């Protein structure tokens, strides 16, 4: 086997490349069983609840028995991320903007269902089959544009990072609020408190912001979902506006 044929063990496990056959009774554990158990723990207890000993215990094995299938905690997180992300939806459209918009909202749906995904440390570029499938969908959407490869990758990174950041931010803000108070009402109350503290001479623009009609609306019956959708869409459209400008330059 040449160096070009060599595939590191973590990538082999990520892509479920078959190992050479071994004599004896098949093991009761495999990568899929371990990863599924770890994802179940993360769904229930959050990312902080996932440890190799806890995963092993949930399966009725010792921690050391997992290392044959998962080389490290970092590798386990990579496997979990690809597994939890799942396959992307089909987004067949000739409109690049609509396609990228749907792609972003589809990723957002996954991260909202599993917010712990937004807390997984980034250890490298996308490398798993599901991650590559999501990349392929977005690249296919942009294939009819005049963007070069560098700009296509930049768009993927920018939109993907925006989705993660917004989902994580919304999740953290929701967790910090009084459970009886919605997002719109919390923002209004925050602005009303700050407007009394901010010196217009020292912070003239910020004072105008918090005194504007944006924060002076009466208590809203708008759902948190609608408010979050509006915030997310605003930022996403600004990004897509920038992509459109770059396409014109191309």
Characteristic key phrases:
mainly alpha, 250 residues
Descriptive overview:
With 250 residues, the chain is mainly α. The protein contains 10 helices and no strands. α5 packs antiparallel against α6. 19% of the residues are buried.
Rounded to an integer in angstroms, the radius of gyration calculated over CA atoms is 23 Å
Q: Which segments are poorly predicted (pLDDT under 50) over 5 or more consecutive residues?
A: none
> Helix/strand/pairing class, anyone?
mainly alpha
**How would you spell out the order of helices and strands?**
HHHHHHHHHH
N- to C-terminal distance:
43 Å
Query: Which geometry do the CA atoms define?
Result: flat
Tell me the number of strands. 0
Largest sheet: none
Determine the fraction of residues in helical runs and give it as a percent range: 55-70%
Number of helices: 10
Average residue-wise pLDDT: 88
Beta-strand content estimate:
under 5%
In short:
With 250 residues, the protein is mainly alpha-helical. Helices cover 60% and strands 0% of the residues.
List the helices and strands and how they pair.
Blueprint: H1 9-14, H2 31-45, H3 52-59, H4 73-85, H5 96-113, H6 129-142, H7 149-176, H8 183-195, H9 204-211, H10 224-249
């Amino acid at each position: 086997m040449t160096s070009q044929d060599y595939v590191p063990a973590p990538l082999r496990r990520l892509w479920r490349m078959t190992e050479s056959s071994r004599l004896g009774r098949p093991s009761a554990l495999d990568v899929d069983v371990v990863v599924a158990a770890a994802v179940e723990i993360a769904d229930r207890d959050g990312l902080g609840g996932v440890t190799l000993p806890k995963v092993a215990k949930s399966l009725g094995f010792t921690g050391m028995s997992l290392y044959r299938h998962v080389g490290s905690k970092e590798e386990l997180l990579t496997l979990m991320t690809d597994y939890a992300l799942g396959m992307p939806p089909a987004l067949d459209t000739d409109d690049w903007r609509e396609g990228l918009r749907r792609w972003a909202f589809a990723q957002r749906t996954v991260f909202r269902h599993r917010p712990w995904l937004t807390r997984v440390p980034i250890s490298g570029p996308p490398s798993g089959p599901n991650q590559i499938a999501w990349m392929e969908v977005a690249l296919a959407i942009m294939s009819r544009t005049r963007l070069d490869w560098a700009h296509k990758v930049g768009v993927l990174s920018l939109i993907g990072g925006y989705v993660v950041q917004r989902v994580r931010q919304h999740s953290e803000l929701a967790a910090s609020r009084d459970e009886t108070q919605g997002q719109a009402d919390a923002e209004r109350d925050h602005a009303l408190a700050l407007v009394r503290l901010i010196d217009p001479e020292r912070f003239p623009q910020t004072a105008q912001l918090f005194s504007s009609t944006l924060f002076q609306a009466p208590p809203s019956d708008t759902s948190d979902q609608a408010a979050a959708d509006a915030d997310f869409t605003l930022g996403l459209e600004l990004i897509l506006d920038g992509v459109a400008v770059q396409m014109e330059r191309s």
